[in-house]
Amino acid sequence: MLARPDLTAELDRLRAARLYRTLRPIESPQGPRPRIDGRELLAFCSNDYLGLANHPQVITAFKRGADTYGVGSGASHLITGHSVAHQALEGALAELTGYPRALLFSTGYMANLGVISTLAGRGDWICEDRLNHASLLDGAQLSRARLCRYAHGDPQALARLLDGGGNVRLIATDGVFSMDGDLAPLPELAALARRAEAWLLVDDAHGLGVLGAEGRGILAHFGLGPEQVPILVGTLGKALGVAGAFVAGSRELIETLIQRARSYIFTTALPPAVAVAVRESLSIARRDSWRRERLQALIRRFRAGAAELGLPLIDSSTPIQLLIAGTVEQALSWSRDLETRGILVSAIRPPTVPEGSSRLRVTFSAAHQEEDVDRLLEALGRLRPEGA
């Protein structure tokens, strides 16, 4: 008989390794200046890239949706949980991305689990970038297919895997890598997928709303479409500021997911009010190009200032900017030092990133101002490297 695992010992191990996580409830709406423990901080660690999470028009739309549909969907999509509000949002997302259809999921994690485990199984190979989001990797594990990981952002490494003779069913990649801020080489990946006659799935969680004309995402950034990328996954709780996710693809793909994706079938649908709010947010994101322009201006200002300070940033043109600390202790020390100056930037540690690459993950929002960036740079300039 197997003994129960000693959870206390494992928690103690995490504490000793400085890998223990704690929740820090905020006492205010999402925004650049959240209130935590009764104190207002200037935050650079939110995914609210366009500043829409607390937008008054989105809030009004959410309230209108609740007045019309109530606060819960009451059932899964395939029972009585799928409302006209869900259907209208799916149509808007399909139109935005240029795909025939889109299908809502409750989270991006569930979307990736659902589509990958539906399309691949035993005997298949799935090829993924080594730095893919955990949901893409877990989707491959759930499918029981063989997971093959290629070197980050390296089409040649993927080509060698494809030439290995396996039955490659699907290639999956982040569009914008959430912990590095760089872009996947999509044109090259699309060409390789076409040559291998494999599905190509792109998770555009951090590109939708931020990249491309009208915020159409990384495919628009590269001038690609459904012909090159048959499966697009997007989230609605980052740049769009609300909640949920979707898969966009052919009519046949979406119908297959409705019939077989377990993370779609066996869960309660998002509240219809969420769908109403997302439609409003989507309209604002498409219309207000100044939000993307301001975001890019803030990123350029930050990178120029960081270069003057000699800060070791990873190359990125996205709102995700990484300052490599190396050790867990250094990342935590930097994060604490910033907070003493009223600035909130989370330390990112293993297993989220590889051992030896702990970092500060600085993220920008269109709701930030130039003086916020300058204040951050002034504080970063005071950080001490390990051993100094």
Radius of gyration: 21 Å
**What is the topology, as strand order, of the major beta sheet?**
4-10-9-8-7-5-6
CATH architecture of the largest domain: 3-Layer(aba) Sandwich
For the record, what CATH class of the largest domain applies? Alpha Beta
- Shape annotation: globular
The amount of beta strand, in percent, is 15-25%
Number of helices: 15
Mean pLDDT: 95
Q: What composes the largest sheet? A: 7 strands, mixed
- In terms of per-residue confidence, which ranges show pLDDT below 50 for 5 or more consecutive residues? none
Helix content: 40-55%
Q: Would you list the SSEs in sequence order as H and E?
A: HEEEHHHEHEHEHEHEHEEHHHHEHEEEH
- Distance between termini? 53 Å
Briefly summarize what is shown.
Helices cover 42% and strands 15% of the residues. With 388 residues, it is an alpha/beta fold.
Overview features:
388 residues, alpha/beta, Aspartate Aminotransferase, domain 1, Aspartate Aminotransferase, domain 2, 2 domains, seven-stranded mixed beta sheet, three-stranded antiparallel beta sheet, 15 helices, 14 strands, 15% strand
